[in-house]
Amino acid sequence: MHAVITGGAQGIGYACAEKLLSLGWDVTILDINSHKLKKASNELHCDYALIDVTDQKSVEQFFSQIVSFDALINNAGIWRPQQLEEIRIRDQEDVVNVNLIGTLICTKAALPSLSNSSRGNIVNFSSLAARTKSPGLGLYAASKSAIETLTKQWAVEIAPIRVNAIAPGLILTEGTEENYQGEMKERRANVVPLKRVGEAVDIANVAAFLVSEEASYVTGQIIDVDGGLGSGSPQS
Question: Which of 120, 130, 143, 159 makes an SS bond possible with 114, Cβ 3.0 to 4.6 Å?
Fold first, then answer.
């Protein structure tokens, strides 16, 4: 079993790689950050490739070298929080290009190799923000809404390759840790029904299920991994 994980050098992507490796998978992590990528591959003892998911030529060249693999985890993503009146269009173009177009480029390039696997499947990454639509996020939430639409579209279009998506809630990673400094972590945890902020491993555990044979009849689904936050906050 072989999985390719974009944005695999840190955070949720790293946790997904670590989890799958522990289950006996072969894993290749892709990332644009060369320093973090090499460090992660050394720690995880897995293959890696320096790839910008928005660079169609590089992505296609990478996947053309793989005859067959079993799971693509489209984890690479960025955000540029900005209020509408202060939005810088170039910043938001970057968000759409990485989150949406990057997912498209990788999925399209990976299809021939995934089709050669009897268990080929894709896990995309949305966000609870796609439905909560928190203000000040620029086009981040919109890009994740588009991912959810494409997940369902592709699940029909490219079956029997399975396509699902995970929508994380409040998750503490290297990329979000500044939002959980001091008392902020406790305050945020208190709005979650399960009373804690999630960790990257919480997401990785679900990703590992979705790419497994145990999920062989699961496709076209958006799985919220949010401690119940999408259902509402507990009354104080």
Answer: 120
